[in-house]
């Protein structure tokens, strides 16, 4: 009887092992399909294929890679029928030249962030440049400018450390669009260091499928970002500078299909490379949790904000899990426009300008709904 029980147990164990290996093999083959789909997408999408140009990450642009751009650097290339022109100002930013000290009466908005801030086919097609154009349309005649200080790969702690420099440019409003870099290069590495065993068994695609990553356990590490954003907001308030922050947009997983969905699965591995997850479903759940914590943070501390993720989720305007086509970049500017316009109306420069108009403040234009 004992022999029969042991034999049955051994056969059951062997069956589980064989099924597990078969499942792992099937998922590995499925991953190869995702890689092939991503390669097809790259071949047909000039913006993803040339993301280093679109997102101002090309090595020729840097004074110190991922830290400081080279003042006056320029990249001008035509690839796949698209022209990418990246020009750095004399201060080392992808923006037009600007005066310091700020001209009297000027309303100055400064946008800080990573590649999703600095990205654009040309300098005039970045979201800060488009936001400037849209704000000037709302407030014709108002001396106003939007500066793009974005640095590809920058995190919230990068910008918090550089606030003295940013304040030196005399902003009235600072707009920050964080998310992906803090998740990938801050929260996930800290989680991996705190839970070294998790990374080992999540190397298995089958384990990931059977035991979904518990995103709520990331909360303490995602909260590090909101602590930094809170410190940034307080520093701005102390200087009399408005600070507006955006939630983070990504493609709606319910609407992604075909090769693009497989491309997202493969692309997610890049952003998860500090902790081995292999699907866009996992990435989407992490971003969703980030945005839930974002909403809780801005409501609790009354931080001016734009819910970008609610306004921008159409997969057709994304080229990967976070970066956008030129149309998507224009929509990103639209997503920020109402709240930034509201902050503009609170500035001293706007009040002086509006009071000088016929009818005073009552005759000044109102921001969009």
Explain this structure to me?
The protein has one domain: Rossmann fold, CATH 3.40.50.1110. The protein contains 16 helices and nine strands. The protein has helices spanning 2-44, 46-49, 51-54, 115-118, 127-138, 156-161, 163-167, 180-194, 196-201, 205-210, 219-239, 258-271, 280-301, 308-311, 326-344, 348-355; strands at 62-64, 68-69, 74-79, 82-87, 107-113, 144-148, 173-177, 242-246, 305-306. The strands form three sheets. A five-stranded parallel β-sheet has the order 6-5-7-8-9, with helices on both faces. Strands 1-2 form a two-stranded antiparallel sheet. A hairpin with a 3-residue loop joins strand 1 and strand 2 (68-69). Helix 8 packs across helix 11 (219-239), helix 11 runs parallel beside helix 13 and helix 12 (258-271) crosses helix 13 (280-301). The mean pLDDT is 90.
Which series of helices and strands comes N to C? HHHEEEEEHHEHHEHHHHEHHEHHH
| CATH architectural label | 3-Layer(aba) Sandwich
Main sheet attributes: strand count, strand direction, barrel closure: 5 strands, parallel
Shape type: elongated
Q: CATH topology, what is it called? A: Rossmann fold
Radius of gyration: 24 Å
Secondary-structure content class: alpha/beta
Task: Point out poorly predicted stretches.
Answer: none
Helix content: 40-55%
DSSP helix count? 16
Kindly, what is the distance between the CA atoms of the first and last residues, rounded to a whole number of angstroms? 78 Å
Please state how the strands of the largest beta sheet are arranged side by side: 6-5-7-8-9
Total number of domains: 1
Question: What's the overall average pLDDT, rounded?
Answer: 90
Q: What's the CATH class, please?
A: Alpha Beta
Name of the CATH superfamily? SGNH hydrolase
């Amino acid at each position: 009887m004992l022999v029969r029980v042991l034999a049955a147990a051994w056969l059951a164990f062997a069956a589980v092992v064989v099924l597990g290996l078969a499942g792992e093999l099937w998922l590995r083959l499925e991953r190869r399909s995702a890689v092939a789909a991503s390669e097809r997408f790259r071949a047909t999408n000039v913006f993803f294929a040339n993301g280093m140009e679109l997102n101002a990450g090309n090595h020729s642009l840097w004074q110190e890679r991922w830290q400081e751009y080279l003042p006056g650097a320029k990249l001008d290339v035509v690839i796949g029928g698209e022209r990418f022109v990246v020009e750095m100002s004399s201060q080392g930013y992808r923006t037009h030249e600007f005066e310091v000290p700020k001209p009297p009466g000027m309303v100055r908005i400064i946008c800080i962030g990573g590649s999703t801030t600095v990205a654009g086919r040309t300098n005039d097609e970045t979201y800060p440049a488009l936001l400037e154009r849209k704000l000037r349309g709302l407030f014709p005649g108002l001396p106003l400018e939007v500066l793009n200080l974005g640095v590809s790969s920058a995190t919230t702690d990068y910008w918090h450390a550089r606030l003295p420099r940013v304040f030196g440019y005399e902003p009235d409003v600072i707009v920050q669009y964080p998310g992906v870099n803090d998740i990938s290069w801050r929260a996930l590495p800290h989680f991996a260091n705190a839970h070294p065993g998790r990374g080992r068994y999540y190397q298995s695609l089958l384990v990931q499928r059977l035991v979904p990553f518990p995103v709520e356990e990331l909360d303490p590490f995602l909260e590090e970002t909101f602590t930094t954003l809170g410190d940034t907001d307080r520093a701005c308030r102390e200087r009399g500078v408005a600070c507006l922050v955006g939630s983070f947009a990504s493609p709606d997983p319910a609407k992604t299909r075909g090769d693009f969905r497989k491309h997202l699965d493969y692309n997610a591995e890049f952003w998860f490379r500090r902790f081995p997850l292999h699907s866009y479903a996992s990435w989407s759940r992490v971003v969703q949790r980030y945005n839930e914590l974002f909403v809780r943070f801005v409501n609790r501390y009354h931080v001016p904000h734009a819910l970008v993720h609610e306004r921008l989720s159409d997969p057709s305007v994304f080229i990967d899990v976070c970066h956008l086509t030129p149309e998507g970049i224009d929509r990103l500017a639209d997503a920020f426009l109402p709240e930034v316009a509201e902050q503009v109306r609170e500035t001293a420069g706007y009040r002086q300008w509006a009071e000088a108009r016929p009818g005073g403040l009552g005759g000044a234009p109102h921001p969009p709904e």
